[in-house]
Amino acid sequence: MKTYRIATIPGDGIGKEVVPAGQQVLEALARCTQNFEFQFENFDWGADYYRQHGVMMPADGLAALRDKDAILFGSAGDPDVPDHITLWGLRLKICQGFDQYANVRPTRILPGIDAPLKRCTPDDLNWVIVRENSEGEYSGIGGRVHQGHPIEAATDVSILTRAGVERIMRFAFKLAQSRPRKLLTVITKSNAQRHAMVMWDEVALEISKEFPDVKWDKELVDAATARMVNRPATLDTIVATNLHADILSDLAAALAGSLGIAPTGNIDPERRYPSMFEPIHGSAFDIMGKGLANPIGTFWSVVMLLEHLGEFEAAKRVMAAVEAVTADASLHTGDLGGKATTAHVTAAVCALVERTEAAVA
Ligand code: NAD
Ligand code: MN
């Protein structure tokens, strides 16, 4: 029997509600297999920790995560702590510290979900957005001088490196190649941003030659938003810079029904470090502490975590349970127009996971 060591970091807001729910699903799964078990270690990092210690996570925090097989993360963000402190002090510290340079964000319209695009069938919207996760607009380089004076100046410098662009392009082409349509769209803005984005385009062309069987095209980021709404079926795998993909993936999640459903993996493709899985949503201040958060985004992230561990059958089993639950409108949370609570949805998914029939995907 294999033992997987999983770190759980609920963080802030509804992260504290959905991460325990995700752990419950993994525990339900472990109860019905002889193949593996999970050893969980929970880390109470986040804004509460910050209020006590002045930092979002301890200085040696990465070392405590280093030997885990995967990390399940909730959200960083608190009404009383500035967002750049919570984000940089925890989530980005882990993403950058473990060089999780590929952020993978699948989007599909799950059964039973009422998505806003009325002319779109579930088959028309089946995307994976690959977000460059280590540099670009969120490189963290910049500064402020003369604070508070009229001559105050501030910069956020976007950095793209050839090595960074090559590795994310290669990852995206490979992912596109593994999907049935073998179709990649490279998002750019090289008309206005005439240095780094031009290099981005050039590297895309170079890497494309390693993947002659992948069909690919380029789209400007602004036009891409319209294409996602008007011609969703023309897209499959999408690669974009850190900021562009951040925005496009919230749009993708909304088009597929709700921000509460969308999952993501922060992946170190070379497996030097643990990868981290999380719902794409944030702390949801408006509903936190009420038991109303949709846990589906976390459960789908758990599916990605299992796939990353190589447990494909188990992943299918959880996904089948998730789809059976979304198909039942009485198990929809408020964001989907329903009345179900986090606990209802979690219990339903756990019950299905533990029933062998759910294994047939
Ligand atoms: P948000 O995702 O927290 O909320 C946006 C809206 O979507 C809210 O109305 C919320 O109720 C709803 N929503 C989100 N997830 C839901 C779920 N699972 N179930 C039901 N409804 C859900 O985004 P925001 O308001 O822009 O950000 C709030 C805080 O979260 C900020 O501090 C922000 O910095 C942080 N944040 C963190 C992460 C992260 O750690 N990965 C990501 C995004 C935002
Ligand atoms: Mn985001």
From TrEMBL:
MF (Gene Ontology): D-malate dehydrogenase (decarboxylating) (NAD+) activity; magnesium ion binding; NAD binding
Pfam family of the protein (one): Iso_dh
Annotated ranges, domain Isopropylmalate dehydrogenase-like: 5-349
InterPro entries: ICDH/IPMDH, IsoCit/isopropylmalate_DH_CS, IsoPropMal-DH-like_dom, TTC_DH
Enzyme Commission number(s): 1.1.1.83
Family to which the UniProt record says this protein belongs: Belongs to the isocitrate and isopropylmalate dehydrogenases family.
Keywords of the record: Manganese, Metal-binding, NAD, Oxidoreductase
Name the record gives this protein: D-malate dehydrogenase (decarboxylating)
Organism: Caballeronia grimmiae
Domain of life of the organism encoding this protein: Bacteria
Database matches in NCBIfam families: TTC
Record keyword Manganese present: yes
Enzyme kind, highest EC tier: oxidoreductase
Keyword match Manganese: yes
PROSITE patterns for the chain: IDH_IMDH
Catalytic activity: (R)-malate + NAD(+) = pyruvate + CO2 + NADH
Cofactor or coenzyme needed: Mn(2+); Mg(2+)
